[in-house]
Design brief:
The complex is a heterodimer.
Chain A (H helix, E strand, L loop, with lengths): L2 H20 L5 H15 L3 H26 L16 H26 L5 H6 L2 H7 L8 H24 L4 H17 L5 H25 L3 H19 L15
Helix pairs in contact in A: 1-3, 2-3, 3-7, 4-9, 4-10, 7-8, 7-9, 7-10, 8-9, 9-10
Chain B lengths: L3 H11 L24 H29 L5 H4 L5 H29 L6 E4 L7 H29 L4 H14 L6 H21 L3 H28 L6 E4 L2
Parallel strand pairs in B: 1-2
Helix pairs in contact in B: 1-5, 2-5, 4-7, 4-8, 5-6, 5-7, 5-8, 6-7, 7-8
Classes of the chains: A mainly alpha, B mainly alpha.
Pfam families (chain B): Rce1-like
GO molecular function, one term (chain B): peptidase activity
Keywords (chain B): Hydrolase, Membrane, Protease, Transmembrane, Transmembrane helix
Chain lengths: 253, 244
């Protein structure tokens, strides 16, 4: 397959993944009905039952997207998980610091433009993060960690390394994989501030994680980077001011 | 597929923009970022945290470059004669005046207020802690933005030297967003001058001495300003200049 054809396929697959995940439950009434049905079947409260359901839908659709993309490249799933040289630990640590500082720089610019903006509150109101906050505290890290695993294998593994295996240059592959990843994150938010924060942070994560993946040929360092980042955001949302917490009983996906 | 070294070179550049922002992990997202929060606490945190962040990120970046076999000559060349070092000290001290001039331009243009000069001090007294903070930060910044950035951009990525100097100056300046948008413009000017000193002299010691001289002058002004504030019982405003 040629590089442009694979880029088009990746765009279509990612768009399809997110549309199938997002659109059926865009209607709050349908979300509520589904949550109550799930609660009746599982014995869980509606909010965590729907959070688990949403995560499973996201991951099942993501698995299908991953299979479709890997089939179009000479890569294998296990081949994406090579163990990097020990020296790459330094690069990973630098990447963690660099991603955090670039991300905070973007938020600082936002505060400079509008000092009244409530970033923690906005993040806590993003639907998938609000659904994580409905889970018991000790299980909250699992959802972002598993989502990070899927997103890294798909965007840095199948898309970035797939483009490389098909003969793409580094900059083009970085641009395509990062833009698809960021567009996917922005598609899951509902306000401008959320779009700015998630958009800039996923651009940073995409570029830095992409460079780590390109340097090692493995998604493992980028996966660790993404998990640390996702964990930071989840805890941040959980510690947001009381006014920023999602209203009790509100259902979110 | 792709060059391992090239990927690491780009990573070192992307991951070292504005390390001081790491300090804001504790402040930018939480209640301390909101209007009415204790700005003094954030400033005190910055006095310790910013140099620590610069040191940690610089050490990591240099270690990655050394481990990856792409430490540039700009980072490892330190030999410079006494005339160069004296000239660097003069240029560094003169840069304080140039930064004040840049800082005064907006006030002169809008004609508001009486022009008074002040330095950013991080909210605390200009004591030994402040001196150590601006010393450590200057060393880390020269290693990072002049040695590593200009070296990687020019020697490794083959960009024209002017582009490398300008890009490194902007990356260095963005790290001063802490002090406001004007400080970024002021520090871009200083960054270009430090970069040119490196390119013309071929020694990292020259921009380092200039940077240390600039910070020494700022420290002396901060001490003087602190005495003046205590005597007057108030703050000052006008064309500000930041160390770092």
């Amino acid at each position: 397959m040629s590089v442009p054809a694979f880029a088009a396929l990746a765009t279509a697959v990612v768009a399809g993944w997110l549309a199938l995940y997002r659109l059926p439950f865009n209607d709050p009434a349908r979300r509520r009905r589904t949550a109550l049905w799930l609660a009746g079947r599982t014995g869980l409260r509606p909010e965590p039952a729907f959070a688990v359901f949403g995560t499973v839908v996201y991951l099942v659709l993501g698995t299908l997207a991953l299979a479709a993309l890997l089939a179009a490249t000479p890569l294998t799933l296990s081949g994406l998980f090579g163990v990097p040289a020990p020296g790459m630990l330094l690069a990973l640590l630098l990447a963690v610091f660099g991603t955090s500082s670039a991300n905070i720089l973007c938020v600082s610019l936002l505060y400079r433009a509008d000092p009244r903006v409530d970033v923690p509150g906005e993040i806590a109101r993003i639907q998938w993060i609000a659904s994580i906050l409905a889970l018991p505290r000790h299980y909250r890290w699992i959802v972002p960690a598993v989502a990070a695993l899927f997103e890294e294998v798909l965007f840095r593994g199948a898309v970035l390394l797939g483009l490389g295996a098909l003969g793409s240059g580094l900059f083009l592959a970085l641009a395509i994989s990062t833009c698809l990843f960021a567009a996917g994150q922005v598609a899951l938010v509902s306000t401008r501030v959320q779009a700015y924060v998630l958009g800039t942070s996923s651009l940073t994560l995409g570029v830095v994680g992409g460079l780590l993946t390109a340097a090692t040929g493995s998604v493992l360092p980028a996966l660790v980077l993404h998990m640390s980042f996702a964990g930071f955001y989840t805890n941040l949302s959980a510690s947001a001011s009381p006014g920023a917490r999602p209203a009790t009983g509100r259902l979110s996906l | 597929m792709w060059s391992h070294t090239r990927s690491l070179e780009l990573l070192v550049l992307v991951a070292t923009v504005a390390p001081a922002e790491l300090v804001r992990v504790a402040t930018a997202f939480g209640p301390a970022a909101r209007p009415g929060a204790d700005r003094g606490r954030a400033a005190r945190l910055g006095l310790i945290g910013a140099p620590a962040a610069y040191l940690a990120v610089t050490a990591l970046a240099v270690a990655v470059a050394a481990d990856g076999g792409f430490a540039p000559a700009a980072l490892t060349g330190w030999r410079a004669g006494a005339p160069w070092l004296v000239a660097a000290a003069v240029v560094g001290a003169a840069l304080v005046g140039a930064e004040f001039a840049v800082g005064a331009v907006p006030r002169l243009l809008d004609g508001t207020g009486r022009l008074r000069l002040a330095v950013h001090r991080g909210g605390g007294p200009a004591g030994g802690g402040y001196a150590a903070a601006i010393l450590v930060t200057a060393v880390a910044e020269e290693l990072l933005y002049r040695g590593l950035w200009i070296g990687v951009l020019h020697e490794r990525l083959r960009l024209p030297v002017g582009v490398a100097v300008a890009a490194a100056a902007v990356a260095y300046a963005v790290g001063h967003l802490f002090f406001g948008g004007l400080a970024v413009v002021q520090k871009t000017l200083s960054g270009v001058v430090f970069g040119l000193l490196l390119v013309v002299s071929g020694s990292l010691a020259v921009p380092l001495v200039a940077h240390l001289a600039q910070n020494a002058a700022v420290f002396a002004l901060a001490v003087r300003q602190g005495r003046g504030e205590r005597a007057a019982g108030g703050g000052v405003s006008g064309g500000r200049e930041a160390a770092g």
